[in-house]
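Hallway conversation turned thread

IA: we were arguing at lunch whether anyone had actually written out Sodium/potassium-transporting ATPase subunit beta end to end. Turns out nobody had. So, for the record, here is the sequence (303 residues) and right after it the structure tokens. Reply here if something looks off.
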Amino acid sequence: MPPKTDDGGWKKFLWNSEKGELLGRTGGSWFKIIVFYVIFYGCLAGIFIGTIQAMLLTLSNYKPTWQDRVAPPGLTHTPRSDKSEMSFNPRDVETYLPYTKALRDFLAKYDDDKQLDQMKFEDCGDEPMGYKNRGDLESDTGVRRACRFSRSLLGPCSGLDEKDKEFGFDKGQPCIVVKLNRIVNFRPRTPISNETIPEEAQPKVQPNLIPIYCTNKREEDAGKIGEIKYYGIGGGFPLQYYPYYGKLLHPHYLQPLVALHFTNLTRNEELRIECKVYGDNISYSDKDRYQGRFDIKISVNGL
């Protein structure tokens, strides 16, 4: 606390014109203090900048340096809704309009006319095949081409048929579109044996394909789900779309899709459905509801 003086008080303490002091110190003292702190904080800033630059030299522009804790890919679906619930009345357009709009917006980038550029896209076949190797991430190959994926592969869930522009919602037979989330340089591996797959899902296993299977989540919903049809390449996720090289090297990448068509859901009941993908390096976690799986509640209301 500055001392009180009788000859000028606070004003004189702030600036003493007789002694040339500012806050009790001469100009020379303040100059030394300023120089000290400029040098001190300059050194701190230099150390900080040098540390950041050294760290940046260890990072790759194309892939995460450490991926040992990266979880298996998430399995997500469109349309998405609060609490993963879909409830609608086929006779009331307003109840399912948000769902059909979400599907149209999502599938727009899969239109054929957006995949015509031969420098950006290539045909990778409409049957499951092995990995499409486009070189190492750190190679000088440059931007990689992406495999085309036509939304027409999704059949009645593509939204292309003039007779079914509403993705089945107007008939009480809704479609949802499913994808595996992107992980740079991740190569999903097909199941090594049927022992890791439920018996009812085993017929979906085939070479070069990550299968997906959906069923009732709760025992009380058994027999109420009805037939589920799977559309896409092999009804699963084909390996030729992997690996993904990241945004810089694979900017036009399109994930393979699977459309699920629920053709005979029991009406006026809340049905809980679980879908899983099966692979040798895909696991599940109770803490993450989308790690390799998801469950969704669907209610088709009305007669």
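OS: looked through it. The chain has a mean pLDDT of 85.
IA: good, adding that to the notes. The domain at 75-300 is CATH 2.60.40.1660 (Immunoglobulin-like).
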